[in-house]
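User: I'm writing a short report section on ligand binding and want a predicted complex to refer to. Could you take this sequence and 3-hydroxybutanoyl-coenzyme A and write out the structure as tokens? A short remark afterwards would be nice.
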Amino acid sequence: MSQVESIVVIGAGTMGSGIAYAAAANGISATVVDVASAALDKARGYHEKTAARSVEKGRLLEADAKSLLGRIAYEGDLAEACAGSGFVIEAASERADLKKSLFATMVASAAGDAVLATNTSSISITEIATAAGDAADRVIGMHFFNPVPVMKLVEVIKGLATSEGTVERTISLAKAMGKTPIPANDRAGFVSNRVLMPLINEAFFAWMEGVAKAEDIDEIMKLGCNFPMGPLRLADFIGLDVCHDIMMVLHRELGDPKFFPCPLLRQLVTAGRLGDKTGHGVYEHTR
Ligand code: 3HC
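Assistant: Sure. The structure tokens for the complex follow:
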């Protein structure tokens, strides 16, 4: 199996820009595609800042940082960016209809044997693959974690039609990106979000019921369970809307009332308090 030398990443949000950086940091060229030029500018800023921080910390020579940044390209046209590509990772918003329309373009534009991966956090891989027609065997879940340059895990999810060859190529790329790939089956939330999101949701219930203050809930989980961030702080970091939407998918797909989002989480999302990205969620954040 030949080593992947370049990838296309669709979506210049937090996850897409993190995936592109992790690839470039490991010698793999990455083209980030987004229709929004402001998102591409923001991704470029993040890449420059992250590389500069590594230079400051003495982990990267200035020349190597320059080469790293030189391996990342920014593109506004999806079909053009995908043309002939052998490995595409979709990291667009969590909407099944959007992902399906992107996959139709990926199939049409990428190489005939390209791996077509999605970084979805909870949408069924089998469902996304319905947009790929005969190429469903090349569709796979490649679930990264935020912040991607730091977090070691890639959850690798096979859809019903995903071939073993696609799995092997995905595992190989994840390893080349310095990650640890671990397989999970195509059930709502896979493993990570099936376990993490109910825990976060329960922290909202504890807060809503006045079991403890938000800060204390987080501190208890940090000091008592060795969490790097408490669950409410982590919810702000992930995005309260993202947590809410994943709970809704778990609730719908698994049919158990225990997955219904806490009313307080729903209320904060309704109020537009989405966490770090809006400057206010459970906590206020300086941006
Ligand atoms: N990009 C790149 N590097 C980053 C970064 C970012 N966004 N944020 C932090 N880092 C690096 C820093 O440069 C620093 O590196 P250094 O120590 O070598 O200088 C290192 O990470 C530690 O950062 P800080 O010292 O600033 O802060 P912390 O020690 O508090 O670590 C953290 C920050 C890594 C985010 C840590 O708090 C953590 O691990 N939090 C939990 C994150 C987590 O659980 N993520 C999973 C979310 S779920 C998910 O993504 C799935 C989705 O489907 C919802």
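A remark for your report: The mean pLDDT is 97. Residues 37-56 form the longest helix (20 residues).
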